[in-house]
Design goal:
With 421 residues, this protein is of the alpha/beta class. The protein folds into four domains: 135 residues, P-loop containing nucleotide triphosphate hydrolases (Rossmann fold); 65 residues, Helicase, Ruva Protein, domain 3 (Orthogonal Bundle); 90 residues, Zinc Finger, Delta Prime, domain 3, CATH 1.20.272.10; 61 residues, no CATH class. It has 19 helices and seven strands. β1 and β2 form a beta hairpin. α5 runs parallel beside α6 and α13 packs antiparallel against α14. The longest helix has 18 residues. The N terminus is likely disordered.
């Protein structure tokens, strides 16, 4: 069965996302510029047919088509195609593939393509094990990652590869994918879907075609009649798009942090809910809240850190789902708290000076042995005595006028007068 000239694997014992996997580059939905005639990948396919080749890094979110494109590239080259996942593959298994590839080249003059999914899960030493075979051409590597290769893939591999970035599918593109499935897939048997049901699935799939098709199939299985919005919602329960190990993890926690820092409690709670619904480790969230309390609120509200620590301990004691409550409490409190990063800036600047060797000797009267001339501050009624503590080129702590730190600023002004600064 086909639609618009597109043929799919109709074995209904396989998941819908597998059954609908495109059989040619032209059938891939989305990535128009990347896959268009004359594009880098299109030119690569033509080069493959004449024997030229480059290894490839495909970088994109889940369900954007990385595995599909990798398989289509391998078919164009007519090569042995070996698929491994970095999550479960050892260096010894990679070496077995390389040894087999050597034999195939020597005996049959047949190339081998190694598709390594989630290459960012490989350590540096594991990635190093691929270099010799890639450089010599024994294998052609097509690697996929949901994380920026600049941070997750070693530089020698990047320099030997063409890097292609895949964007999430748009809502319109997801609707196109689902409409193809509805019309052409034997497993769905032409099942009718209300427009708002498909719109809802496309919306919550967040650009992930595989998720959209999985939710579509779940909704179809939940009803013997037409699939409406209520059925789609029910079948999609607890399926909010979130990848606790990939870009969505980093993007969401980044948005969460920036919303708290920006004093928007509603946005912060929204991203907190997305992380919780997506199965994020609540201890990770609690750690980020403690860092937020120190870095972005600091001495403007010293109690913020205490509250964040208490929430982390509470989550550890009571677990989830109840742990969502203290996490929400602290999120809202930190978002509404006065903000100051002055302590954070002070320690960073001081460390920079120390690391650049911009330091002086400890004054004699402050040393642990042989100290002469030290004055004990408690002997003075004001609790502060004018004496030198360090010869510094600059002031590190400069309090803001936010929250409690305004009180500290006033106190520091008094101390400066006593110390003659």
């Amino acid at each position: 069965m086909a639609i618009l000239g597109v043929a799919y694997n109709q074995r209904v014992d396989k998941p819908l996302a597998v059954r609908m996997r495109p059989k040619s580059i032209g059938e891939v939905v989305g990535h128009g510029k990347l896959l268009a005639k004359g594009s880098p990948i299109a030119r690569l396919i033509e080069a493959e047919r004449t024997g030229a080749w480059s290894s490839v890094l495909l970088w994109g979110p889940p369900g954007s088509g990385k595995t599909t494109i990798a398989r289509l590239l391998s078919e164009a080259k007519n090569a042995n195609f070996i698929e491994l996942s970095a999550i479960s593959t050892s260096v010894s298994q990679v070496r077995e593939v390389i040894d087999a590839a050597k034999r195939d080249v020597e005996i049959y003059d047949r190339p081998t393509i190694l598709f390594l999914d989630e290459i960012h899960r490989f350590s540096k030493s594991q990635q190093d094990s691929l270099l010799g075979a890639v450089e010599s051409g024994i294998i052609t590597l097509i690697a996929a990652t949901t994380e920026n290769p600049s941070f997750s893939v070693i530089r020698p591999l990047i320099s030997r590869s063409l890097v292609f970035k895949l964007d999430p599918l748009t809502k319109t593109e997801l609707l196109t994918v689902m409409e193809r499935a509805r019309v052409s897939d034997a497993g769905l048997s032409g099942r009718a879907f209300d427009t708002d049901a498909l719109e809802y699935i496309a919306e919550i799939s967040s650009g992930d075609a595989r998720r959209a098709l999985t939710l579509m199939e779940a909704a179809a299985s939940a009803s013997s009649a037409q699939v409406n919005l209520e059925i789609a919602r029910s079948a999609s329960a607890n399926q909010i798009a979130y990848d606790a190990a990939g870009d969505l993890h980093y993007d969401t926690i980044s948005a969460f942090i920036k919303s708290v820092r920006g004093s928007d409690p509603d946005a912060a709670i929204h991203y907190l809910a997305r992380m919780i619904a997506g199965g994020e480790d609540p201890r990770f969230i609690a750690r980020r809240l403690m860092i937020l309390a120190s870095e972005d609120i600091g001495l403007a509200d010293p109690g913020a850190l205490q509250l964040a620590v208490a929430a982390a301990q509470t989550v550890e004691l009571i677990g989830m789902p109840e742990g969502r409550i203290p996490l929400a409490e602290v999120t809202i409190y930190l978002a509404l708290a006065p903000k100051s990063n002055r302590a954070y800036s002070a320690i960073n600047q001081a460390l920079e000076d120390v690391e650049s060797q911009s330091i002086t000797e400890v004054p004699p009267h402050l040393r642990s042995t042989g100290a002469v001339g030290y004055q004990y501050p408690h002997d003075d009624p004001k609790g502060v005595i004018s004496q030198s503590y360090a010869q510094l080129k600059q002031r590190y702590y400069q309090p803001s006028n936010h929250g409690f730190e305004k009180t500290l600023a006033e106190r520091l002004k008094v101390i400066d007068e006593i110390l003659g600064r």
